[in-house]
Specification:
It is a single chain. The chain is of the alpha/beta class. The chain has two domains: 84 residues, Immunoglobulin-like, CATH 2.60.40; 264 residues, Protein tyrosine phosphatase superfamily (Protein-Tyrosine Phosphatase, Chain A), CATH 3.90.190.10. 40% of the residues lie in helices and 15% in strands. The strands form three sheets. Strands 8-9-12-10-11 form a five-stranded mixed sheet, with helices on one face. Strands 4-3-6-7 form a four-stranded antiparallel sheet, with no helix packed on it. It has a three-stranded antiparallel sheet with strand order 1-2-5, with no helix packed on it. It is globular and about 65 Å long.
């Protein structure tokens, strides 16, 4: 069945070309198209090649100024739409679409509706134009009032923003946003040395794990994420962008909840979460180099890395905590967040492909 094929991959190489890879269980004839529409059945598509073989290297006809999608047509089967997951937006290292994953009954999440990102502060005009062309209706902003005050979002044409302060980041946000932006790194290091218990100052990430457990159990978090899911149950609120500061922790949890309601497997949820690791590698190297100029204390440096790192153990802590609380993640969403079987069905009817 076509819908059981793993989502094809689209990666933009250093030369700016799109490298498209795909695999099929049985060799067959494949035609490849590109389009500006998130619609596998669109007539507005351009042929890239007939009888193509993986990989296909393709020059972006829109030169990363606007989003494009791809369509695989395989021997008369239903066409398969896919696209880049991390989008090439200037100044944003973690802006991506979490469509395409296989959900309930083998149906895929629709592309072009659910985006996740790091914060949208100080966007350059080309980045602003790129996002505006996505037709964003709603922004879900998980940051605190202090974060928003220091780094307000650039307008990207959204109709509304939900400010849902789910949970304060441990030391990173508390210290950095109490300081002038030019002195964030030093303020954070000083805060770790002054405020964090010494037995937690290491690279094991226990405070991050505790934060992830709090996403599941704290009343503040439950309230914020319940409001987010209720907003997503209204199709008029999409396309949407969910974001916090780095698009990792608070955003990662919100995305996970949507994916669970759509029936995405735990393996794919973990995979999607870990894409943040790849997207932030260079950024994290720069941050750690800056921290090393301030301190040579390896325990402090390990602690700081744990705050900005993306680890499987973090997202697994969420799933495991849900299971401890309610037996399964699905039961957790129903029991603790107040959603029904009908809500799950509505979410799936709205956002999974036919």
């Amino acid at each position: 069945m076509l819908k059981q094929i793993k989502t094809p991959s689209v990666i933009r190489n250093k030369q700016g070309n799109l490298v498209i890879t795909f695999s099929l269980i049985n060799p067959t004839s494949i035609d490849l198209y590109w389009t500006e529409e998130a619609n596998a059945y669109t007539e507005n598509k351009t042929l890239i090649g007939k009888n193509v073989q993986s990989p296909v290297i393709f020059d972006d006809p829109l030169q990363a100024k606007k989003r494009i999608y791809f369509i695989l047509q395989i021997n008369g089967k239903p066409p398969l739409l896919f696209g880049e997951r991390t989008l090439p937006i200037t100044g944003l290292n973690n802006f991506r679409d979490f469509g395409g994953y296989i959900g309930k009954n083998g149906k895929r999440i629709k592309w072009g509706l659910f985006y996740r990102s790091n914060h949208l502060h100080g966007l350059k005009p080309d980045a602003q134009a790129y996002i505006q062309a996505l037709g964003i209706r709603t922004i879900i902003d998980y940051r605190s009032e202090n974060e928003i005050k220091n780094s307000p979002n650039t307008n990207v044409g959204e109709k509304q923003t939900f400010h849902l302060n789910a949970s304060a980041q441990t030391a990173e946000l508390a210290a950095q946003f109490a300081a002038d932006p030019s002195d964030e790194d030093r303020a954070l290091v000083e805060s770790v040395l002054r405020d964090i218990p010494k037995d937690l100052v290491n690279g094991e990430g226990e405070q991050v794990l505790e934060q992830y457990r709090n996403f599941v159990v704290s009343d503040k978090s439950k309230d914020s994420y319940s409001k987010m899911l209720k907003a997503m149950l209204d199709s008029n609120n999409n396309p949407s962008i969910q974001h916090c500061r780095g698009g990792k922790d608070r955003t990662g949890y919100g995305v996970l909840l949507i994916q669970l309601m759509l029936g995405v497997s735990e393996d794919d949820i973990i995979y999607d979460y870990m894409l943040t690791h790849d997207n932030r590698l260079e950024r994290n190297k720069i941050k750690m180099a800056a921290y090393r100029k301030i301190t040579d204390n390896e325990n402090v440096l390990g602690y700081l890395l744990s705050l900005i790192d993306t680890r499987e153990s973090f997202v697994k802590e969420i799933l495991n905590t849900m299971k401890k609380v309610a037996g399964t993640p699905t039961n957790y969403i129903k029991q603790e967040l107040g959603f029904t079987d009908q809500d799950f069905q509505t979410m799936q009817d709205l956002y999974l492909e036919d």
